[in-house]
Amino acid sequence: MINIVVCIKQVPMVSELPWNPKTGTLRRELAEGMMNPACAHALEAAVQIKSRQKSEITAITMGPPMAEEVLYEAIAVGADRGVLLTDNAFAAADTYATSYTLARTIEMQCPDVDLVLCGSHASDSETAQVGPQIAEELDIPAAAYVEDFEVKGRTVRMQRISDNFLEIMEMKLPGLMTIMTRSFAPRYPSLEGLADAFEQPHIKILSADDINLDPNKIGRKGSPTRIINVYSPTAEKQNVVLKGTAKKVVAQIFDKYGEKISSAIGKDLKRV
Ligand SMILES: Cc1cc2nc3c(=O)[nH]c(=O)nc-3n(C[C@H](O)[C@H](O)[C@H](O)COP(=O)(O)OP(=O)(O)OC[C@H]3O[C@@H](n4cnc5c(N)ncnc54)[C@H](O)[C@@H]3O)c2cc1C
Q: Among 48, 76, 112, 160, which residue has the least CB neighbours within 10 Å?
């Protein structure tokens, strides 16, 4: 029997992300939610393990009440139960507070966890920090950006591509992996799965009071990250005519734009 936890984030549908130009923040309340794409791949990886060996899958999400939708979706494709962490006390959590909250919930709700699976990154904030930070909080080994793996007894053998090299690694369980989106293509929920998910929803809803949490480590209070500003960069266009011989034109380009070219290509042009 292998106990698997899949951490799933609900993200706003990218096509519907409106901005509040005054505050520079995303108006998430106006956007419809969806399962973060990489989390759908992590869930599929869990379901594939379950199709090969006896397993129990717990899907956990932290977010506003509407995040419960991703748990129904997870149960419809093969998760056994869902845990929704929702409370205003969790709001505005950065990755540090999110990882702390998720890790304490895993300890409490799945004390015998063997494998924690996360997406490689969230499509909205995209820090890719939460998975490895959960492992740190749980004091278990972790491997990020995993493309493929096989569980053999208490060991996972995995593959990932790093700097164009194929890495093959082994990790003892319990452990955590973050899953890339190139493999484990998510399946569509079956009608039977959807019926099960909605008829017998094994979903637990927990608030901050239900978990043994340090109030100074959750939500905004527990988040050392400060977002100073969020904005869409504007591109300025300018037409410039350079005159003279080819040699003079090139010299002018280097004079005027050398610094910008250097920073774009990551090389100091003066030293080339
Ligand atoms: C009431 C409330 C409001 C929130 N509002 C926002 C908000 O406005 N904006 C925002 O970005 N976040 C919000 N969150 C969630 C939380 O703050 C972010 O999830 C966290 O900062 C993750 O950072 P990231 O997106 O860079 O994740 P990454 O580190 O890029 O995510 C990697 C992986 O970690 C796991 N993971 C990440 N976040 C969660 C999660 N919440 N639940 C389960 N698994 C997760 C997933 O497997 C994901 O694929 C809210 C939470 C609550 C409770």
A: 112
**Nearest residue CA, atom 6 of ligand 1?**
92
Query: What are the phi and psi torsion angles at 11 (to 5°)?
Result: -120, 160
Which residue has its alpha carbon closest to ligand 1 atom 17?
A: 93
Take atom 22 of ligand 1 and give the residue whose Cα is closest. Answer: 95
Determine the residue of 6, 62, 83, 96 to mutate for testing ligand 1's pocket, defined as the one with the most ligand atoms within 8 A of the Cβ atom.
Answer: 62
Per-residue pLDDT tens over the stretch 126-176: 899 999 999 999 999 999 999 999 999 999 999 998 888 999 999 999 999
- Residue-wise pLDDT for 18-45, tens only, equals 667 666 666 766 778 999 999 999 999 9
Question: Domains plus CATH for the chain?
Answer: 2-217 (3.40.50.620), 234-272 (no CATH)
Q: Are strands 142-146 and 203-206 parallel, antiparallel or unpaired?
A: unpaired
CA of 32 to the centre of ligand 1 (A): 16
